[in-house]
Amino acid sequence: MGDSKLYTRVKASDILTELNNYEKKPKSSVYRKTILKKIIINMSVGDNEVIMLISQVTKILSDLGPTDSEIKQLCYFYLTNYWRHKQEETLHALPFIVNDYETNKKTSDNDTCLAIRTMASIHIANYLNSLVPILEESLQREISGKIRKTAAYAVAEIFNVNEKRDPESNRRLLMLLNDMLAEEDDASVVSAALSALREITDKSDTLKLSIDSNHAVKLANSLTGCGEWSQVSILSSLLSFISQDLKTAAHLIDTVLPYLQSENSSIVLNALKVVVYLSHYVDNVLDVFPVLPQSISGAVANLLLKPAEIQFLAMRNVILLLLDKPALMDLDIRMFFCQYDDLLYIKDTKLEIIFLLACQENMDMVLAELQEYALEIDVQMVRKSIRAIGNLAVKIDATSDKCVSVLADLISNSIPYVVEEVAIVARDILRKYPGKFDHLTHLLVDRVDLITEPESKTSIIWILGEYSSSISDSIYLLKKYAANMLEEPTETQLALLTAIIKAHVCQPYNKELQGLVENTLKDVTQNTNHPDLRERAYFYWRLLSAKLPNAIDIIKPRLLKLNTETDALSPDVCEELNLCIGTLASIYLRPVSQVFRHVKPDRLVDSPALVHQDLKSPQVRAKVRRSTIRSRSSTTTSQQLGNPSINRSRSSSFKLDEIVKKLSLKK
Amino acid sequence: MIAALFIFSHKGEVLISRIFRAGVRRNVSEVFRIQVISKLSDIKSPVLTLGSTSFLHIRHGSLWIVAVTRDNADASQVLEFLYKFIDLLRGLILLSEKDDSASDRILTDVDVMNNFSAIYEILGRIIDYGHIQDWDLLELKSGLNAKLTKGHGSKKGGRAQAATSSTIKTGSALLSRAASMSRHRSSSLGGILGVGGASIHSGGANGLYNSRAPGIKYKKNEINITVTEQVSLLMSHAGSIVRAFAEGSVNANTKLSGIPVCSFRLIKQREPIIGKYERENRYEYNEDHGKQEPDFTIDTEDDEEVDDDTNTNKEAFEKLNECNFHNCVNLQDFDNDGIVKFVPPDREFELMRYRTDITSLPFIVYVEYDYAGSDRLDFKLRLKTHYSKTITASDVVVRIPIPTGTMHAKINSDSGKAKLLANESTIQWKFKKLVGQRLCELNAAVDSIEGAMISWSKSRPPISIDFTMDNYSTSGYRIEHLKVDEPNLSYRTVKSVKYFSLSKSYEIRM
């Protein structure tokens, strides 16, 4: 018999009468359990009327709790949800829970944990008073690992509340947690203590978690001995370690590297995070670890076999690395070719990666693939792949011919949305390579009737205005557009006005154009209500009637060179995001403080070993290799030189500290 | 860190709601329902962030499993956990049938409702104040207070339809469903069986993670290893390989006494495979494949082959790069010398997975089609099997997508059974058994309507092939030097290794 038929909304008053009815009957415990389940279900589905039944629930707890663990845990669950609203009544349950802890602490780990967890979730003073001694007891060494883990988390949970109430006991608990870090026999307990401490320090302004190098090495070595989620927690806490020298950092990378092959994607991404983080502290990291690109790429390939959501996350992080440290990866672009049944957001992300990975060498393959997508029936996908082809033409000069010929090929099918999208990308291509691809313009102009969407209309009008002298039909087409000008959206109207004037200043003696300019200006200034448009028309009108000799420089100035590096992230953002691999910020690829307002961003902490190396260009590897011998020999000398200088800088900072202290004392 | 977890039914009703951290309001579930579930048509991302609260969701059949986090949480941890959690529930709730179909089944909302009390208890155990804990399936199962109500679940197939937006319909829906089905199958197995255990004994003398109970004893000591490879291929219409790889999964079933240490190596054996297709070769002779008759002759002993044989020694130690392992394998050992060394848990589990590019394709389809008028289409198909004659593939199904609304087709094939599946708009060509080194032909003339022909010629969904092959590893990887060593009990072990190859998404674009 399942409980699914209990999933109905019930009025609190009905439950109450039901309870009262059954109270008298024999075997009431079975009925009361069912009623309790109904209460919990109503709580789950968000019917908060059941808050009113709190005293009934505590009664069930004290009557049936000791014998039936299921009832006990359901009641606890109820209490942790609703204590805030009924603090008085919640207090009645406290003796029961404390008693529950006392009776079970030697026999059942699960029940003990449950009791501790419940008490820690209820932030009422009396609960905390009873909880603190319990926690102090449970954090002791001889208690089983399971309980100590729960107790460690509980400390983090109550830390902020308790700080105001009783700072002294808080300090004791913190020390106990700190002691747990030093233990060696149970890595999962250490990981729990680490998570708890990290949570406390994240919220606090005064406390800071730092791990020294001995401890970091110990932690990394303990990874083999613990379960998967403890591994995740240990790996991510390694980011609190600030490497002071190259050797420790390199050693840690070496230890963590195998975890890139784990089956658990979270371990993989966290290991990646550690490797990327520590690579900041290893000079010439690719010489020390020539396998690094290969290992990371292997890990990426594995992540792509995971379910869509995880694939998505992994690929966002690939984008991050490609923007900042492409040299760390050696990816096969074919991995990111879309599959027929990929979800839209996966296809999107893959396209982005294909765009980033495309280079002169693989361009044939990439174009063939993108062309394939552009022939699909999914309009969104088609548009995106055409845009990618266009952007590639702008990005890589050497292969722009190939890209444009693919685009030309695509237009020849005369599918409206294809033509529209090509019109949009054509604008940038023509700007980047003036005079090189006039045939593209002609192909577009031939199909100008297919273009209806505003954005691409604006684009084609811009092209007509800019290159009017080389397009034979331009005047005729501009005239045609001008005839319906007032029905267009403002954006198109503005573009059209500018285009007509531009065409005019290029061919000032063309009668037809003169007429068109006059008509348009008249039309716009008299009939439009849009202030921007009217003002611009007046502006042009005056400019033209002033007959300035350099009017053409104002109206049709020489175009600035197109900046193709718009997709790069700023170094600051990259530095911050590198520490956020696998987190939500990596999905948005935006600085943490922009996504989450109250979070303080992590920064790379300066240390003598911190190096700024260029991992930008994928080709850097070859270059570095050539200079290996030289740099190796130089590193040895620089290390000798480096050591004293480290000491010096430390001692000087020490002195500075002392001076500051003295000064403050004098005050 | 997970602040709250919800399970919704497909209609958006809350089935399970558990809040782990203060600071999350109860009504966040309502926010998710309005923002995501009711806007089913366009899911742009599995993550939604509003203010400092984020929702990360996955789908399981018709269910929505949603985790709520605050601030910049570790998304990798949350997503991985959601999948592992569902696998755990499936392992506990669904009836464990021995056959393969059990792992194909998915939970329904009724299963969740029936077991709500147990699910709350499990959540309490595996998430402590939002921190995910290590768990062990068996330990968890034995310690449950709430009773589990076993369920049958439902057959797979909901997801593909629900998730893919309106873009692809008809014949392709079938293809995509097949693909997602196999994807689920592969991902689920590992999850149910191979979840890392809570550490009872941490780190033995050999530094291996060990989750075995002490004192296990078997009369007959056995280790059975099954290597299953799922083969994916995407070949462009010109005949060049866009993608060709195999995803291998090594499952081990051990019945071993004491605390045994097992080890093996995965070695790539390149038997001289006849009629193989080098990636580079394909690239060169692609362009004009449509006109030129492809070379069907069997190139038995070319100079090339000899070259390859001399290369075998070198390739034998070619290390797998794209692989991952169960928690029990010592990753550092594998990293050092390529030995897979582990203390197996006492049950069947997925030991490792790998992905590798393949150079020999078991099946190749050559297709030509002509438009005979505006409403008629002629197909000519050749299916070539490129594996050795001693191996037989079974249940080979070739699906050829044709224009929608086709009612009649004249189909001629020299072997196998071919028929028109009108409601799926495909021609299905089926072989119960198919031996290696064969060439089969099929001719078909399809009558359709003009509009359907045009949309077909624009989209042209790919031809797909399904197959199952015993004793065949497509990638050529084999398990060698399998050793079982129990220092205290020294016994003899019966060892067996089996190989299978299955199609995952084996597609040839038209």
From TrEMBL, chain A:
It holds the Pfam family Adaptin_N. Residues 15-545 form the Clathrin/coatomer adaptor adaptin-like N-terminal domain. One of its GO terms (cellular component) is membrane coat. Adaptins are components of the adaptor complexes which link clathrin to receptors in coated vesicles. Clathrin-associated protein complexes are believed to interact with the cytoplasmic tails of membrane proteins, leading to their selection and concentration. It is found in: Endomembrane system. Keywords: Membrane, Protein transport, Transport. Residues 639-650 have a biased composition (Polar residues). Residues 616-650 are annotated as: Disordered. The keyword Transport applies. This is AP complex subunit beta. Belongs to the adaptor complexes large subunit family. One of its GO terms (biological process) is vesicle-mediated transport. One of its GO terms (molecular function) is clathrin binding. InterPro entries: AP_beta, AP_complex_bsu_1_2_4, ARM-like, ARM-type_fold, Clathrin/coatomer_adapt-like_N. It comes from Eeniella nana.
UniProtKB/TrEMBL annotation, chain B:
Belongs to the adaptor complexes medium subunit family. GO terms for cellular component: clathrin adaptor complex; endomembrane system. It is found in: Endomembrane system. This is MHD domain-containing protein. The keyword Transferase does not apply. It holds the Pfam family Adap_comp_sub. Residues 296-309 have a biased composition (Acidic residues).
